[in-house]
Design goal:
Elements (H helix, E strand, L loop, with lengths): L1 E3 L2 E4 L3 E2 H8 L3 E5 H13 L6 E6 L6 H10 L2 E4 L2 H9 L7 E3 L6 H10 L2 E4 L2 H10 L5 E6 L21 E2 L3 H11 L3 E5 L9 H15 L7 E3 L17 H19 L4 E4 L3 H4 L3 E12 L4 E5 L8 H4 L6 E3 L7 E7 L7 E9 L6 E4 L20 E6 L2 E6 L4 H5 L15
Parallel strand pairs: 4-20, 5-6, 5-13, 6-7, 7-8, 8-9, 9-10, 9-11, 11-12, 12-13, 15-17
Antiparallel strand pairs: 1-2, 2-3, 4-14, 14-15, 14-19, 16-19, 17-18, 20-21
Helix pairs in contact: 2-3, 6-7, 8-9
Length: 417
């Protein structure tokens, strides 16, 4: 998002205010050039030749986004059979999809086996059942390295009390299951959390996984997850991808030499690819002055963007209607019948009723976590590709609210008094 001649533009010189005029508010907008930039930035950070990036699509599963990421050369990381099916619909080959579920039934795993995708298992009970039912189907094993990493406890997935992964201390049990069932393990996986800033923390987890992998013959790939931090504020603080790529390439080449085979090194970036590509545009309904606070109340809420309330996540907020106005202090809130606060005491160019505000870093886990709370409609989504805007999801209507409800004429009319 760049300010040119008093107007904010995306790549291809697409003006944000024109998108609002065309599609209305609230509105999610995704810039494909930013996704491409992030993909290439991550891929180019590694000199190791056999690198594969699998987009963690839970971040944003609009089928047009999936198709675009596939066109860049990425595989797909899925956490549900529904995501797997979306990936197949988007044109991914089954062998380019890694299914990494958590706490699901064998029935769903069986369905994904039937679809031919790669299977990643993160608990010994399911691994044993899988080995008895599908001993000839290659499988990946997800370990828990027991490392606390990530932006906060809700997005840290590799610590000792996490529900994710098989403890690294349970590898002897894993090997007994493999021996008893004849199961073929062809991949090892870990994911320690999201928004990992410290490269050394990431490398420590990689060391644990690679050391465990030495005890497994016949591996084809190692998946180190993702969790790279993007800059949510205009301070540029993010994971040093070049440093990570340099250090991890050296470590992985050493591992492959000791293992006796060149394995594929895989990652599963989600937020890193799409977060900065997204903007969320809302309209100011009311500017409300109280004793100590000036509220800017907008036509959205936690039903559309729950991350600030759920994770205490920070999203930079800009006034695209008055970008060069004098900055004042506002608390930006939503229209839901809850305390749905997007930002407290933010310095924003003077906000007037009817102005359009833009929330940055709205590409990952934003629309995907939206709901119909308060029976509000979910917003439209627009994608910018090669300088043109495309509507990729229509705004909901009342028909969407009631389409799965079944109304019965079984109730007596109210008694009039």
């Amino acid at each position: 998002m760049k300010l040119q001649n008093g107007t904010y533009h995306l790549s291809g010189n697409v003006a944000l205010n024109e998108l609002v005029e065309k599609y209305g508010c609230p509105l999610y907008v995704y810039d494909s050039e930013v996704i491409k930039r992030q993909y290439n930035k991550l891929k180019d950070a590694f000199t190791y030749k056999k690198i594969k990036l699998n987009y963690a699509c839970k971040a944003l599963t609009n089928i047009n986004i999936l198709k675009y990421v596939r066109s860049l050369g990425a595989g797909l990381d899925c956490v549900s059979v529904q995501e797997v099916k979306l990936g197949l619909m988007a044109g991914y080959a089954p062998e380019d999809i890694l299914y990494t579920p958590n706490c699901i039934s064998m029935d769903e795993i069986e369905e994904c086996v039937g679809l031919g995708v790669k299977i990643n298992i993160d608990n010994t009970s399911i691994l044993e059942q899988f080995g008895h039912q599908f001993p000839d189907y290659p499988v990946c094993v997800r370990i828990n390295p027991h490392i606390m990493a990530g932006g906060n406890t809700k997005i840290s997935t590799g610590h000792i009390d996490s529900k994710f992964g098989i403890s690294v201390y349970q590898m002897p049990l894993v090997k007994r299951i493999i021996k008893a069932t004849g199961l073929r393990v062809n991949g090892m996986h870990m994911h320690t959390g999201s928004e990992i800033l410290d490269v050394d923390v990431y490398l420590r987890g990689a060391d644990i996984l690679l050391n465990a992998a030495m005890d497994f013959d016949g591996l084809d790939y190692i998946d180190l997850g993702s969790g790279f931090k993007v800059s949510y504020k205009n301070d540029g603080i993010e994971t040093d991808i070049k440093e990570l790529g340099s250090k991890l390439t050296e470590r992985f080449e050493e591992f492959c030499e000791a293992y006796g085979k060149e394995l594929t090194l895989e990652f599963e970036p989600g937020k890193y690819l799409v977060s900065e590509a997204g903007l969320f545009l809302v309209k100011v309904n009311v500017v409300k002055q109280t004793v100590s606070t000036v509220f800017a109340g907008v036509d959205s809420g936690l039903n559309h963007l729950i991350r600030p309330m759920f994770y205490d996540a920070y999203h930079e907020i800009s006034n695209i209607s008055n970008p060069e106005g004098k900055k004042r202090i506002y608390t930006v809130v939503g229209y839901i019948c809850e305390t749905d606060t997007f930002g407290v005491n933010r310095k924003i160019p003077e906000v007037r009723e009817g102005d359009i505000l833009a929330f940055q870093n709205a590409g990952a886990y934003c629309y995907m976590m939206s709901s119909n709370y308060n029976s509000r409609f979910r917003p439209a989504e627009v994608m910018i590709y090669e300088g043109k805007d495309y509507l990729i999801r229509k705004r909901e209507t009342m028909d969407d609210i009631i389409k799965n409800q079944i109304e019965h004429e079984i109730f007596e009319p109210a008694i009039q008094i």
